[in-house]
User: Fold this.
Amino acid sequence: MPKTIPSLPGIGPSSLPFSPVVEANGFVFLAGQVGDTPERRGQRVDGDIRAEVRAMLANVQRLLEATGLTTRDVVKCTVYMTDMDEFATMNEVYREVFSTDMPTRATVGVARLAADFRCEIEVLAVR
Assistant:
């Protein structure tokens, strides 16, 4: 099955040079999602790391729903964090969304993320 870029009802196109979602061979790849909102794209939500992780995971859920999937279809996540001291807090919020049938995950400490976000997640789901 060739690579496809699905139409995403209710999801605006990215102004950056990448696709938010690509599907190939039954796998659905979500580009890195950060803690912004549809109304304030590219701007970190106000609040602490909890607010940012909640917004980040809401963006994941929004993209999955637009492709007809849910978090139960996620098989792999990679989380990037600029402050690993916030790892436990990120996990608390992460468990609110991924509480059962959890996907595999890697968490990587990085020096900096775009637009000074504190965390970012990329997701691989299977149809």
In short: The chain has two helices and five strands.
